[in-house]
Amino acid sequence: MCAEILLAADERLDEVNEDLVLIQKKNALAFGTDAFLLSAFLRPATRERAVELGCGNGIISLLAATRGRFSHITAVEIQAQMADLAARNVACNHLSDRVLVLESDVRLLNAATLGGEVGVVFANPPYMRTDSGAASPYGAKEIARHETKGGIREFAAAAARTLKYGGLFYTVYRPDRIEALFAALREHKLAPKRMVLVQDHPEAPPSMLLLESKLGAAEGLVLLPTLCLHEKRGDKALSPRAAAIYENGIF
After folding, report:
1. Please, is 97 exposed, middle or buried when counting C-beta atoms within 10 Å of its C-beta (0-12, 13-18, 19+)?
2. CB 99, CB 60: distance < 8 Å
3. Ramachandran angles phi, psi of 81, nearest 5°
4. Do the Cβ atoms of 121 and 158 come closer than 8 Å?
5. Does an H or E element contain 39, and which?
6. Is the pLDDT at 222 greater than 80, yes or no?
7. C-alpha angle with apex 208: 49 to 110, nearest 5 degrees?
8. pLDDT tens, 96-130?
9. Could you please report the per-residue DSSP string of 101-168?
């Protein structure tokens, strides 16, 4: 789709799922399992407008748009270079009629900015506190990993400000920070409704979780069966369930 694209010295062009091509920065976070699984966890809402908070290179919005999950997606990104990259990826894959990239700080985002409340918000937010883990020397990677420009509390607040009553907020997060996640959701009246834990193999501890929350809903969480990416330690092949998700793009 983008055979004639000009890449900067710090960029590469990859072919990824759904016949998409993706320009990625060599020193920014690359497309990974967490982003793909979040895109597959999004349930279709074809009449709803959606917003992605902190879109990075735009891959989750691209996957959602290609699958026709929503009527339109606004992909929000605070970093100018990453917002430009996401916009180029949208144009490169001929999805400009379905995805708009907006350079903005999620901490300042509101429904008016988006032309009204939306039905769905999704995010792959920074997982790490600013006082934990090694800092990256690369600004784009540091902002994507650490809560330097807002963490789950700020992302949940942005979701609550932009969602209509009963709207859905999807996120991928780390199990060891589930307390912070649930506290942020509770503070902003987002009720956890559907969750799945993900682990590498049956003997490994969960390494991520996927969560769907609803604005203004009563309590009542459905915990889906844990997803094991592989059937046993050391397997390279995906488990049948994981392979089906990768093949079909939905849980």
Report:
1. exposed
2. no
3. -65, -35
4. yes
5. helix 33-41
6. yes
7. 30
8. 999 999 999 999 999 999 999 999 999 999 986 65
9. EEE--GGG--GGGGTS-EEEEEE----B-TTSSPPPSSHHHHHHHBGGG--HHHHHHHHHHHEEEEEE
Residue 155 CA to residue 237 CA, distance in Å, equals 34
pLDDT value at position 209? Answer: 98
Task: Assess whether pLDDT exceeds 90 at residue 8.
Answer: no
What's the token pair of residue 179?
């307390």
Q: Which residue has the tokens 């400009």?
A: 96
pTM: 0.90
Q: For the chain, how are helix, strand and coil distributed in percent, rounded to 5?
A: 35, 30, 40
Q: What does the alpha-carbon distance between residue 59 and residue 243 come to, in Å, rounded to a whole number?
A: 19
Q: Residue length, the chain?
A: 251
Amino acid code (one letter) for 85? L
In degrees, rounded to 5, the angle at the alpha carbon of residue 159 between the alpha carbons of residues 84 and 242 is 75
pLDDT tens track for 131-180: 655 544 544 544 444 455 679 999 999 999 999 999 999 999 999 999 99
233 Cβ contact list (under 8 Å, min separation 6) = 200, 201, 203, 204
The H or E element that residue 74 is part of is strand 70-77
Tokens 């987002």 correspond to 190
Give tens-digit pLDDT for 179-199: 999 999 999 999 999 999 999
> Which structure tokens are listed for 142?
């540091």
pLDDT for residue 174: 96
CA distance 194 to 237: 27
CA distance 29 to 35: 11
Residue pair 135/142 in contact by the 8 Å Cβ criterion: yes
Tokens of 74: 């606004």
